[in-house]
Write a sequence for this structure.
């Protein structure tokens, strides 16, 4: 496929690369605030919000972005496998954060670890994969995938599930039910997501 120039968010919709890049900024900003606040309750709320965003973002990527990468990018299958391994590591840290006391030194260490993992993952995507997506997929396809990603994020789980598979099929069939249960738990516990 020929290289397609990026036309910007006002050319009929927001493309998936823009959406995911903005997600990265938001997640890292929430964790940065969690790392610096002195209030344990605020630290927990900011971290929970970041975890919910990471889960929504990751699930949407696995459902709609990774299949496009595997199909259209040279080395796409290997890149997707690498990303899924990074998602596994991120999910493990988020699960540890859920179980840690927000006022503890362990919590602060885990927030920093999650921040570092996300920064590394975002850098890989933004410096290599996203430019390749823009090169190999047309603008209309990028916008179409962006629309699907936004819809998926509304149904995706908001809590880490380390034993859940990182597969498109799982996320499209079982994932919405898991997401519904997570949102119910969030409402019942007053968790800010």
């Amino acid at each position: 496929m020929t290289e397609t120039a990026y036309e910007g968010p006002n050319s009929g919709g927001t493309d998936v690369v823009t959406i995911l890049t903005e997600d990265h900024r938001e997640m890292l900003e929430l964790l940065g605030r969690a790392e610096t606040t002195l209030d344990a309750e605020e630290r927990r709320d900011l971290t929970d919000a970041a975890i919910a965003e990471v889960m929504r973002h990751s699930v949407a990527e696995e459902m709609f972005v990774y299949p496009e990468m595997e199909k259209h990018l040279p080395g796409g299958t290997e890149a997707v496998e690498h990303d899924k391994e990074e998602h596994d590591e991120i999910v493990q840290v988020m699960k540890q954060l859920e179980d840690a006391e927000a006022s503890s030194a362990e919590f602060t260490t885990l927030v920093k670890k999650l921040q570092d993992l996300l920064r590394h993952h975002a850098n890989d995507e933004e410096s290599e994969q996203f430019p390749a997506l823009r090169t190999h997929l047309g603008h209309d396809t990028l916008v179409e995938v962006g629309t699907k990603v936004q819809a998926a994020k509304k149904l995706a789980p908001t809590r880490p599930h380390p034993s859940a598979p990182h597969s498109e099929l799982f996320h499209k069939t079982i994932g919405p039910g898991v997401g519904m249960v997570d949102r119910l738990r969030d409402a019942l516990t007053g968790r800010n997501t």
